[in-house]
Amino acid sequence: MKKEAKTEIKGEDMKILIVDDNEQNLYMLDMMLTGYGHDVVSAKNGDEALHKLKKDNFNLIISDILMPKMDGFQLCRECKKDEKLKIIPFIFYTATYTEKKDEEFALGLGASRFIVKPAEPEVFIRIIREVMQEADKGLISAPAAAIIKETEFKERYTERVVKKLEKKILQLEEAKKALEEEIAERKQAEEALLESERQLREAQEMAHMGFWSWDVKTGDVKWSEEVFKIFCLDPNEFKPRIDSILALSPWPEDHERDKELVRRAMENHEMGIYEQRFLRPDGSIGYYHSTFQGKYDVNGGLISIVGTVLDITERKRAEEEIALNALRIQFLLDLHQLAFAPQEEILDFTLEASLKMTQSEFSWFGFMDEKESVLNIHRWSKSTMAQCALHEKPLEFKVSEAGLWGDCIRQRKPVVVNDYSAPHTSKKRIPEGHVRIQRFLAVPVFDEARIMAVAAVANKKQEYTDSDVSALGNLINKLWEILRRKQTNQTLALQARISNIFLTTPDDEMYNEVLKIVLEMTRSLFGVFGYIDEAGALVVPTMTRQIWDRCQVPDKTFIFPRDKWGHSSWPQAIRGKNIICTNEPSTNIPVGHVGIQRQIALPILLKGEVVGLFQVANKETNYTEADIRLLKDVAEQVAPILSARLRREQAEEKIRKLNAELEQRVKERTAQLESANKELEAFAYSVSHDLRAPLRAIDGYSRFVLEDYAEKLDDEGRRLLNVIRINTQKMDQLITDILGLSRVRRTEMRLSRIDMNALVNTVYREIASPEIQQKFVFSVEPLPEVFGDPTLIRQVWINLISNAIKYTLPREERRIEIGGRTEGGMNIYCIKDTGVGFNPDYTHKLFGLFQRLHRADEFEGTGVGLAIVQRVIMRHGGKVWAEGKVNEGATFWFSIPIREERDA
Amino acid sequence: MLDQGVVEILLVEDNPHDAEMAIRALKKHNLANNLVHVTDGEEALDFIFTRGAYTERNMENGPKIILLDLKLPKVDGLEVLKVVKSDPRTKIIPIIALTSSSEDKDIIESYRLGVNSYIVKPVDFDKFVEAIRDLGYYWLLMNKSPIR
To answer: Among A43, A638, A729, A771, which lies 20 to 30 A Cα-Cα from B71?
Structure first.
């Protein structure tokens, strides 16, 4: 290579004439030879070359063959004819004359080489070098003798040229043909181009891609049709400007970002890419993808910007939908996780979640009552609360008066309203200050067939779709599921706690303990738990200390008689058997009473009757359906026990009262009896002493008369005095009997076991003299033992046996039979005689005091004996009865209950 | 006067008729020879303990037996009984209670206080005489030797 390089340098000072009619060829050769350090002169034809050859000295001639005016062959011939020029090496360089005969002709003219175009520069240079070395050695070929001759030259020259022309024509025809073919092809290509352009346009349309450009100099902004389409603008009316596209996104936060993005792209001459939302003329939001690229001049000045706009609204929607669905699922999961959080927290979360899940502005949630007639708004979302200017935010809505949301209860399915401003049959007038509704969605929550609650959202920016309905439905159903489970758990726990109280707490503390729980669960400050007593009064055995201590009402009481109930909420609740729940401060509160900001008064019902009352007050937040439900649960559980307790308390109270009364009565009666007894004793004493003294005097002094004046008295006188004496003795007997009776009444019984057979026999022997006994057949069966007062029972037998003797003595057959048996828990004894008997019509008079069925001159007696018998037997808890007929004897029975010693 | 001599029987009886009948009954059996009759408990105690109107009397002179009606004005018969029976000088004097009724709860009380016997004053005078006779003899005879 280095060796070659030397030779190259050696040839630097060569002056070369190049001859070609084609400027491009000249240029190419010039560039190449100059590049190798040669001095190059060019000529456009043989004529010009000959002129230049004659003026200047050249080391080498390189010539084309086919040239106007004088071609290469003629030039070569002229040079070789010239003595001065014929030593300059001559190289043909041709694209046209390429045949062997052309080369032979050329070499015959005295040319050194014949090079066919195109030749590689290296080959060309190598040939030049060979020619120059040959020339140095004097080896310049002389023209062939034949060619030198004019005719021969012309002949051969013509032949070559004609041939060349023919060939050229042929070539031209071919070229023409090729051209025609090419034209046809191009047409096809053009058509294909048009087609592909159309396809491109269609593709743009389909891809929602548009192009735009901005020429900085002219200020022209061009939008493709699709750009107008994407931005929903009319190409005939809208004149785009460079800032038009960005102006379609009127959100300040987006502006900053866009500006920064454009600035950076321009500064760095980079392609700008961004995604942006835009506002359509109809107010809806779309999204586009934008690319743009600046074109700059050599100095870096901006010439133009071109860009594309791609409508990605659908993609964004899809992405948003996916994000929204993910969000919805996340909310459902979060809600599930919240299952053990406080209920308020769960509801708050659900409300805010319902907003986000449906992309709404407002939401609320309400529970239906049991009849599905009233909806209690549990809670408004914070945004609703903040925006609703209504002074009183009502919590209770009647379905019958409800507007559109009522439809979801009436129709039992979700209600979607996307054109709220349009007339709707169910729509009600919205109160002044109420949040403005544009779109609305309400979903009912079912528990089996019953609608339990309604959730509603409003004012989504786009229309509510089925996916919103199902999302809200899912959320609310999940909420309900949690609430229900929570409620069940809560109810169970509550029931357990209360049951435990019932089991372990003394009666008087039960009220307190239950109230404590109720206050705790409803987060209330004050409370009342009472029952309705027998008289219909409300009795409050418990009351929170605060309320009691702070209450400065005169006549503070735990018992509220029905006629003093007044018209505050709790009596209304009891009278109406309905729950009163208000979150408004009470106005009709007595002076000194603690203030009531909000309260629930709930009558405790059992089988439709009010048995008690719960009242809770002053929770820090509003009372809700949940509080009411909780109170209801407790009330349900408490009611039967309250009632049972109540009944028991009432019964106990009754018994206490009765006992107290009885005790009082016993006391009074005892006092009366004691005083009566004392009187009786005094009377008896008086009778036995004071009544007897005169009798004794009458008898004694009669006797003194009979003794001291015997001789002065005749028989009649003595008889009269004796009548006096007999009557005084009767009187004495009467007194004795009355005293006996009174003794039966008042003496204390001293019970012991009595051998009745022994007693009967003893008594008989005592009262019947041997003479009398002789006259009688007296028989005694084995008698059951009895538990009684021996003295009194003895008196019974004395009276009965002496009666039997007395009334049987006059008869011819004198029998007395005494018997006894045990029957039905009683010992029954009888004494049967064969005496004069009695008229059974007067049986009822037998046992009356001083009642006698016989005349005094028939039988002695005071009419006290049987009365004493009856008294004694009655005091022993038994009965006396008798049977008899006149002249057919009499039978007396008495019974005494069998008693064990320990009963005494 | 009787005051000076030995008193056999002190009859304490406020009812003059009863007293008369008692004395008559005693007389029938010659028991009323040395009999003093007082009409109330206070006088009875004065007599027994030689007080008041009876300070001149010697306690040594009896009485040998006291017939005491339980129902008396001023000092009650039971009170008299109690005082006499609780004084060592007089407690050996037999006291026979007189009562209108055998059911009288005072009889039980009088036994508790140391009465020696009792007589129910029957309406039938004959029976009274019998009772006086039986008891009078018994106690007067019984008490002869110890007192002496």
So the answer is: A729
Q: Which residues of A touch B107 (CB under 8 A)?
A: none
Residue A830: predicted pLDDT: 92
Name the residue of chain B whose CA is nearest to A747's CA. B105
Neighbouring residues of A580: CB distance < 8 A, sequence distance ≥ 6: A569, A570, A572, A573, A599, A600, A601, A602
**Distance of alpha carbon B55 from alpha carbon B3, whole angstroms:** 10
A816 and A808 Cβ atoms separated by less than 8 Å: yes
pLDDT of A430 reads 62
List, in sequence order, every residue forming a beta bridge with A277; answer none if it has no partner.
A287
Contact A674, A640 (CB under 8 A): no
Instruction: Say yes or no for a CB contact (<8 Å) between A725 and B128.
Output: no
Q: Do B123 and A743 touch (CB under 8 A)?
A: no
Which residues have CB under 8 Å from A773's CB, separation 6+?
Answer: A764, A765
Distance CA A127, CA A441 (A): 95
Residue A468, amino acid: D
Least CB–CB distance from A689: residue in B100, B124, B125:
B100
Tell me if the bond preceding B63 is cis, omega within 30° of 0: yes
Return the percentage of chain A with pLDDT > 90, whole number: 5
Q: Is A518 helix (H, G, I), strand (E, B) or coil?
A: helix
How many residues appear in chain A? 904
A393 contact B CB<8A: no
Radius of gyration of chain A (CA): 73
Asked if the interface predicted TM-score (ipTM) of this complex is over 0.90, the answer is no
Beta strands B65-69; B9-12: pairing state: parallel
DSSP line for A10-69:
HTTT-EEEEE-S-HHHHHHHHHHHHHTT-EEEEESSHHHHHHHHHHS--SEEEE-SS-SS
Quick one: pLDDT band at residue A891, thresholds 50, 70, 90?
A: very high
Give pLDDT tens digits for B33-76. 788 888 888 888 888 888 888 888 888 777 888 888 888 877 78
A737 vs B: CB within 8 A: no
Task: Decide if A743 touches B, using CB distance below 8 A.
Answer: yes
B24 touches chain A (CB under 8 A): yes
Q: Look up residue A734 and give its two tokens.
A: 């009467």
Whether the CB-CB separation of A129 and A7 falls below 8 Å is answered with yes
Beta bridge partners of A309: A210, A290
Chain A contact for B109 (CB, 8 A cutoff): no
Token digits for A620? 């820090």
What pLDDT band is residue B148 in, cutting at 50, 70 and 90?
A: very low
Using only the alpha carbons of chain B, give its radius of gyration: 14
Q: What are phi and psi of A487, to 5 degrees?
A: -65, -45
Q: Check if A701 contacts B (Cβ < 8 Å).
A: yes
Per-residue pLDDT tens for A460-484? 888 888 888 888 888 888 888 888 8
From chain B, the residues in CB contact with A728 under 8 A are 123
pTM here is: 0.36
Q: What pLDDT band is residue A676 in, cutting at 50, 70 and 90?
A: confident
- Judge: A697–B122 Cβ closer than 8 Å, yes or no: no
User: Are A696 and B125 within 8 A, CB to CB?
Assistant: yes
Question: Do A65 and A72 contact (CB within 8 A), yes or no?
Answer: yes
The pLDDT, as a whole number, for residue B146 is 41
| A537-586 confidence digits (pLDDT tens) | 777 776 665 566 666 666 666 778 887 777 788 888 888 888 888 888 87
